[in-house]
Amino acid sequence: MKRLTISTFLAVALLSGCSSTEKVIPDVPPSDLYSTAQQALQSGNWNNAIERLEAMDSRYPFGAYSNQVQLDLIYAYYKNDDLPLSQATIARFLRLNPTHPQADWVYYMRGLTHMAQDRSFMHDMFNVDRFDRDPTPSRQAFRDFKYLLERFPDSQYDADAKARMVFLKNQLAEYDLAVADFYVRREAWIAAINRCQQVQRLYPDTGAARKSLLLEKTAYAKLKLDKEVSRTEAVIKLNPVK
After folding, report:
1. Name one Pfam family in it (predicted).
2. pLDDT tens-place string over residues 99-127
């Protein structure tokens, strides 16, 4: 008797969920449904827009609005911080529409979603940068924007992509600098030197590269490598920390 009661309760709950969904997303012509989705997008009601766009994607996967629904979902998911869903939709869209006229925008959005993944709670709440976080999303975003510039040199998003690449390059350089500083504080001198040289090799035109020379000099001094200390001092004179 108890099993029957639980089963009945679950069935009612499921039916209630379905009926409530139908109330939220009525069975209307796709043009009407898309119109309400657009209104939600324009007003910044991302959850409302996503519900309607997902309903369209489910009900009319090969309809006249199919590609535009996918593009709208990419943007709505991004604005709603549903970043994995945005990235999954991007991958799906590019797989099915590799030569679409708005492919450059899709690659641009892929870079934005990876950048957004790199936001930390501490930075969002207190505007504090943390360079000890995983830099993988930033590296992927840099590659996304680089690919955009290479494949679509005349894209309207190129200027913004270039600016973001500069920001990302400095962010990644600061991350490696923080790792080098950690090694110095742990007296892991060889590891510190290797990381400093990595900063200088990968990001030579950044402030972090100039700062890394100071850490490298410290590590050489601790290892009593006087020749390397002198060489690093000469490089520091040519590249003073600003």
Report:
1. YfiO
2. 999 999 999 999 999 999 976 444 544 45
